[in-house]
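Repro case for the chain-ordering regression, as requested:
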Amino acid sequence: MPVNLSAPTAHKLLPVKGVKLGFAEAAIRKLNRKDVLVMTLAEGSHVVGVFTQNQFCAAPVLLCKTHLASGSPIRALLVNTGCANAGTGEDGLNRAKLTCDALAAALNLKTEQVLPFSTGVILEPLPADKVVAGLSAAIANLTEDNWLNAAEAIMTTDIVAKGTSRSLTLGGQQVTVTGISKGSGMIHPNMATMLGYIATDAAVSQAALDSIIQYAVNKSFNCITVDGDTSTNDSLIIVATNQAGNAEISELSADFIALRDALTDVAIELAQAIVRDGEGATKFMTINVQGGRDEDECRKVAYAIAHSPLVKTAFFASDPNLGRILAAIGYAGVEQLDVNALKLYLGDVLVAENGGRAAAYQEEQGSAVMKESEILVCVELARGDAACTVWTCDFSYDYVKINADYRS
Amino acid sequence: MPVNLSAPTAHKLLPVKGVKLGFAEAAIRKLNRKDVLVMTLAEGSHVVGVFTQNQFCAAPVLLCKTHLASGSPIRALLVNTGCANAGTGEDGLNRAKLTCDALAAALNLKTEQVLPFSTGVILEPLPADKVVAGLSAAIANLTEDNWLNAAEAIMTTDIVAKGTSRSLTLGGQQVTVTGISKGSGMIHPNMATMLGYIATDAAVSQAALDSIIQYAVNKSFNCITVDGDTSTNDSLIIVATNQAGNAEISELSADFIALRDALTDVAIELAQAIVRDGEGATKFMTINVQGGRDEDECRKVAYAIAHSPLVKTAFFASDPNLGRILAAIGYAGVEQLDVNALKLYLGDVLVAENGGRAAAYQEEQGSAVMKESEILVCVELARGDAACTVWTCDFSYDYVKINADYRS
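-- result from build under test --
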């Protein structure tokens, strides 16, 4: 079950002026479930995206990059679940393009004004005919208040739909930010995650939006891991529809930081929601590494802990077998690490220092923290000022069950 | 259950002239199990060792390195299970030294002639008094034909004891090689593994033995992974007792290759035995990566596949969800990888080429291979002549169960 996470109610997801959403049940892999999402964007919208660094990136990812680079204003997004259209070669590109062609024709756009996204099983051909057949139903129910249906339409092994909104005032105008995401397994994003969409009606320049998405992704989706597997399809899109009536925000505007932080805040909540709904998750862990020489070595330590199957199973068992964390720190690859100088905390409890167990540490203290559903692990490397935070979940029987059964 | 692996019978493990082994039940963590091993080495023996690169390496590992560097001839090894004596700081070093002192006194040796080894839970103090109390019983049953008891005495979560022997003729003399190992979880050795001991009665120079251990470990223990966790205690020791009567072998001797290969062969069998008995293992996978620009990039690809929880759970389920392997290849970190040039084989079956599923591939072919207990995954990168092989096991419910319950 997701860790301290429930689906948002429909009225909690605020409409964003200029963004309409429509869905269909297209039977791509399973019957009677939403599996196609269409989003249309008002004229004048700015769109930015970041995508997986996996070299086996999916056909829709390649096409997204081409369409974004074309210079044509992006006016529609098309998402399908049930098939990732990854590991599909030239044929996969053709099929992805065919679905963009069909949506463009129906909306009176050019093909390169549509961005395609797919998620599901890798190495299987996209049933493009089914996606195309679903378009008319999706277009027929396009409305601005369809965010919850949209969040449901992009789910795969997710247990709950993920979305959140913020409302703020910029330049005297009410501005809304709403985002949705999906993802539960194959989660170790590298520059983006497995499908996230965030929209705002704020007026913001393309350059400012480019800057914001890099900032936001590095504070959010690039800080999570479920299983260390970087997906072939990770995509994060931020849309600004320019409908709120505020003066256009540039990187030099007084309002730039406020908008950036609101978008980043939404990105963090969506990223954490993916971990809370990580496959088989029963606990949510925050790994905080401080005192490193640079952020890179802090990330190495944080991810060594977050990816260790032994650490993750110990958290599942609420077993304060904390030597496993020391072992992970030790193999993280930090040069000239002084193991006698570092400190390990579990919650507020000092567990290890001087190369070993802290003198005052009592196992009952560790046990008490391990029983919580939200656990903070803090490592103080004591060799510099850099820091980083990574969020992850534990490793349970259900992780194995979900991934042994996923295709059946 | 271990994959195609059963414990050796006592008579299959050939005595090595000059090596005696004795064990005790010292109740270090549990009652009524062998948990202390003493090995004595005849005068004139040469000993080499390689140890974990984990920076949180255990107190006995630090002491082994010091004793090996002291120049005093090593004459005894002392192993305990039930406690790793890692993450124990200065106090851990003192306790390890105390056990060496006691064994040295009993055998009339100097402390630095004893090498200590520990395996078990990290971050707990070694009950040195219990180890010392067990020494007299272990010394009382020292014999040359005690290899199977020795293999049993070093087990922790291992299901079966691991050992093997080779017999060969060098310089007209019969030479024996016998080795034992243990390890089942926290297995991703980096320069050595979680306790392996190989002995030969051959006469061989120290320099030749140094060369052999590096060669052997890189072909064996450095090619395996169970869970990607590099232990704090990995140690591999090779002993040559100089009792077989052959002329001393140097690196220039005609017999050097034969001895090196026999020792390496034993190391490979012991390393593979650890994977076959990997925690929760139901399948044994050989990951063979060819056609790389250098061995390093081949290893990156092989380990990305071998460590992916998604790949490992698919193997557990016998599900040919092979896109997960492509995803792992794609995030392995190989620069400028041409995904359209590489080929993926499962057994003899060509699964993927030209960036996607091979035209002739049928799911039934993949299913048939996945049902086997021994599976070969072959990746042809088609960009050079380098290659490497890694052995691993699948990821099952029992892995979670074992590691959630390990301390209880």
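Ordering looks correct now. Chain A has eleven helices and 16 strands.
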